[in-house]
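Appendix B: complex inputs.
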Amino acid sequence: MKADPAGVLTGVHFLDGDHACCEGALAAGACFAAGYPITPSTEVVERFAARIPKVGGTFIQMEDELASSIAIQGAVWGGAKAFTVTSGPGFSLMMEHIGYAVMTETPCVFVNVQRGGPSTGLPTLPAQSDMMQARWGSHGDYEVIALCPNSPQECFDLTITAFNLSEKYRVPVMFMMDECVGHMTEKVIIPPAEQIEIEPRRKTHKPHDAYKPYECNGDGSLVPEMAHAGEGYKFHVTGLTHDERGYPAMTVAAQQKLVGRLRDKISKAADDLLLVEQDNTADADVVVVTYGITSRVAQRGIDSARAKGLKVGKLRLKIVWPFPDQLIKKLSQRAKAFVVPELNLGQISREVERAAGGVKTVCVPHAGGGVHRPEDILKAIQEASR
Amino acid sequence: MATYVNIEPTQNLEPFKGVKKLPLEEYFTSGHRTCQGCESALVMKMMVKAAGPRTIVLGSTGCMYVANTTYYSTSWVVPWMHTQLGSSGSAALGTAAGLKALMRKGKIKNEPINVIAFCGDGGGADMGLGAISATLTHPDYNCLILMYDNESYANTDIQLSGSTPWGANTTFSTPGPAKRIMHHRWKKNMAGMMAAGHPTCRYVATICMSYGLHGMNSIRKALTIGGPTFIHSLDPCPKGWDYDPIQSHELGELAVNTGVWPLYEVEDGVLRLTGRTQQIADKRIPRQPVRDYLLRQGRFAHFTDDDIDYFQSKVDEMWHKWLIPGAIPFHKEIEADNPPA
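Resulting structure:
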């Protein structure tokens, strides 16, 4: 399905990442946003509020992030594509409703323009310290999808991908920007609508009396079809463990079946959910695993290392969750070491270490508030390659 | 209340008899970076001057948190603590309860200590509403919650809040050719809501620091009466309301004199109009047209005459058709509401 031209601002623009993210959401067909002001993410919904009168749709300023994160889910069940935008403290407040979206299989997008934390932290400065929260922040066992753009262009492109994946897998998608990317202004090319692929909602066409909201089709897909309120289908949406009818089912078997499927629909789609950029990894002794703004700083360190004759490759994660275990395992068969610079004190590096199965993994931590110095990354590469 | 609820004694803060009687000591001093013409900074200064030195101030995220701490220093002379955006009510309650427990156990000297938690309109009327409401139901603890209301999320660049007036231009409600009025909600009636909904709250007041003595004496009364109390202050904001900072004081006066911002207090359930509002109600001074107030502010620059008339009609309704004018918006009968197209 192609994008609706109404929301696509085709042309060459000079946008910051926040505004590009908004344009990506509009191009993806989002017609509802619920937002609450929080630096450095507010510009996304400010632009949405300004664009909506012409594009068509609704923006509501909610009373807090608890409200925003559930208002979008109401909108989705009413038939809209919807998203919300926040930063660290607001993301913390949204956690219960992210779990609700997982449990109810509500396709929606949560944009988090990361800033330094914990708590109020560094509102105007970058970090990548919510990466584990994106994966594990809500209680219970679950899988989500998380993407990390590293440029305003990717803020546009990957926001569309985020919406598409949320529809395809009926799962909340975390769009994990950071303050640098959000406030960085660069050229953004928005293609014509007919060149933008949009994943349609996985709507049901079954007869009303044959539809079960959480029943898989038997076609191998683990993602049930969806009906909207008011279409004549009976459905029951609840955060309680439920059976295929959506009715609460408080049994060990129902829990195992539902939670298992919620996990499997993502983990078994690992190949489809592999989105990375690789440079020179085939013969690399050291692979720098990086994402978001750090990838742009790391590039300088990598280039310097290669200029010194070191065999260094780059693996940039555009989709961080689900984590590309198999790819890391494959690379670890050749590589002597992995180097993971990130604007936190060691989050994704632990995942790399786990997947690398004993191959040396060097974290280059940074508590946030700025970006790494390329020479620190170079130093880590040099030490890792010894 | 005190007959069956065990509350600690409060300081006896008599009303100031005039500006010449005010203490010279300042407990909110230099070292902040609030905007030129910031009325909320004046509220902080007057609030703590009214309360005196034996005071603990808690501030939730907002202008008066961020702007008062950015220079790696604090302008607070009294003890001050930041709380999260929605937690001013809970922080006040916890602090008051902690003090009470320490005094009861003899760990600290038993003396009246003021606990004041402030919040902006975003932190009070939006996110922190539940926490404030819950705190006002606890008669056992002495604390004042002061909501400084500049009618937007001014700290994050003027997004609309639950306290933003109808039609105002904010970064979330920018008027344009496709749609002129982007904000259709009416400002929450926080003081009325707090007074009507919390029988355990002995004192609720509205103030505007353009009438500083009135505001300070309301704060002193709230701290003296005991239990949880609530004050709602309207603060003109040059950045958010878009006017020359020199006009801040005058805009506060206009808000009161046009009847947009009625001054009143509710003490033990008894409502009393106060200050200029009382004089308007008694017809000793006329109520000015809202046009005088609205057209001074860039945030209403897109208003047509119809918009201004509509705004006026809603203010008139507040004065003439509310069961308790200015405070409680119940009507005797349903009226048609016809906003401009």
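The mean pLDDT of chain A is 96.
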